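Predict structure. Input: Chondroitin synthase, 626 residues.
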Amino acid sequence: MMNMAIGGKRTARQAIAGTDSKWKVLDGIIIPGVPPEFELPPISGGGNDYGFIEERRDAFVAAGKPYTLPVSIVMPVYNRKDILAKTIAALCRQNYPLELMELVVADDGSSDGVEEVIEKYRRFLPIRHAFQEDRGYRLAEVRNLGIRTASHDHLILLDCDMLPVPELVASFMAFLHVTEQAILIGHRRFVRTDHLSDDDILTDITLATHLPDVVPENPSFDDDSSKNPIHDGAARKAGQPDVPRTGDWRLPLYGKTDYLKRSIAPFVVCSGGNLAFPRSLAERAGPFCEEFRAWGAEDTEWAYRVFDAGFYFIPVPRTVGLHQEPPGGRNEIDRVAGRAVTQPLMEDRCPLVFRDYVPHRVNSVPKFSVYMPAYNCARYIAQAVDSVLAQDFTDLEVCIVDDGSTDDTLERLERRYKNNPRVRWSTQERGGIGKASNAAARMCRAPYIGQLDADDMLKSHAVRTMVDYLDTHNVGCVYGNYEYIDADGRFLRPGREWPVFSREMLSLSMIVHHFRAFRKRDWNRTSGFDEHLENSVDYEMFIRLSEVCAIAHIPRDVMYLYRWHGLNTSIARYDQQCRNHVRVIRRALQRTGLDRTWELHVPEPLDLEALEYYRRRPLDLDKVES
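Output follows.
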C-alpha cells in the first residue's frame, strides 16, 4: 500500500461575506494556514503554452547575438534529381551561416543521378549522402537513416520538394538557440517551378519566392481533403472550417488555438516535410515507425510520441517551404492507396484524436494505463487488477512493478493473467515506493495514466470518467473521490474531500485524492517520483505536477475503494510520514524560491492540520541569503 493521503483532513469552510479572514480565500473557501498575501508563482508552460520559449527567442533576436549552433538538414529523396537540385540551390541562399549548415541527402534508392546533384553543390556546403537500397516506399526508414547520419545535435527535416525561403533555417535556429524543449513546425505554399532551373534559383532566389500559389492536383489535396486526409480527419473532428485549396490547412486551427497554445492535441499539425528539433527529442521520442511502408501518417504517429514525451509544438510562420508541384501536377505516389494501408496503423498506435472507441478491442497502444507498484500484496492484488479489467471502458492496460515481494505476488499474477494482453508486469529488487512507481509509470504506453495501489480497487466507471474529462479539458491531471473499505472489502466510511482544487491548499495538504490520473506528457515534464523518500511520495509528485500543469477535481464522484487494513504505510509509519510531509513542503518552497519570503511553521508536537506559512523576519532573510 502506498502512502495515505494524510494532511488532507482539514475541513473546508465557506468564507462569510463582508468579514475579514486571517487566511486566504479562494472561490469563497478559506484556505487554512495560507495568509492572504501568500502567492504561488504562476505555471509556466502549462499544456502547449510555449510563450515562455517565445520570450527567450525574442530576447535572443533583439540582442543581436550571432548564431553559433551547427545544424544538419536531413532531406529525403527518391528519383527527383531536378527538384532536389532546386531545393539545394535555395538552401545555399539561406540567411543562416553556410559554415554552420550540413546537408544530409537521405536517398531511398534513387537511380536517376542524384549523385550528380550532390557533387555539384558540395562546393557550397558539406553534403553527406546516406543511401539505402530501393525496396519500395520506405520514407520512415530513410528519415531515420538521415538522422543517424547527421553530424550535429540540431536537425531540420526538409523534403526534397520543399524549396526553402531564405529565412527558413535562421527562423528555426533562433528557437533552437534558446530551447531543447520543442519541435518547430514549418509551413508551406504550393508553387510550380517547371520553368526554372536550379542555376536560376542559385542566381536569384526571388524567382522562386515570388512565384504565385497554385492549386495542387494530387488526390490527397483535392476538394475538402486539401491536406493529408488523416490530418483532415483531425481537423474535421476539431470543427475547423474549410481552407483555400492553395493555403496551409493548419491556419484555421492556429486561429482558434492561438497558434496551438490552447490546443489539447497539437501534434495533429505535424507534417514531416518541414520540421526542426534537437537530437535529444528524437532520442526521447524514438525513431519514425518503420512499419509505415506506404504514403502518409508516419509523421503524425511519430509526433504523437513527441507529444507524450513532453515537448512543445511551436508553429514558426516564417519557415515557409515552397512545395514544388510535380510536372503535370500529379505525383507518382498513389496517396489514396497508401492511406488505406497506413490509416489502420495510425489508429492502432495513436489513441488520441484518430481512434474511435471499440469495446474490447486490444490496440498496440491503449488509451489508458493504470500503474500499480506492488510489494507483498498477494492477498489483494487479484482484486485490484480485476477491478481494472471490469471497467466499462476497455481500451486500457494494467502495468505492475513488483518491488521485490517475498510472498507469492508474482506467482498469483502469472497464474491468473499470463495470457491476458491487458496485464503486464515486471519485477525489481526492493527499491521502495518511488522507484517502483517510476518503473511502473515508465512501463505505461497510454497517454492517460491512473494510479491504483495493489490492495485497493476501482469502481467500474472510474477510467471512463477520467478519459472523458481528459479528452475534453486542457488539464494535465484530474482526480475524483474515494471511500474507505475494510480488509474484507466492506464499506467503512466516506473519504475526505476538499471541494475544489487549489494549489495553495495542496501546498500544505494532500488534497489530490484517489482516483487520480494524469497525462503522460505532463508527468514527463517532471523529474518523476522521488526515489529517496520512503513515504509521502505521492504528495511530492502531485505538488511537482501542479507546478507544470493545471489540475482539476471532479467533486462528489466516488471512483476508488481505499482499503484500510491496519498495515497501511500511513498507519504503520505515521510519524515518519508526517516528517516527510513537512520535508516535501519545505523542498517545494525552495524549488519555487518562496523560501526567501516564507517559512513553514511546524507546531510541536507535530500536527499536520496546524501547519501554517509565516512571513520571514529580516534576520531570517539574511540566513536564506547566506
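Residues 362 and 421 are 8 Å apart (CA to CA).
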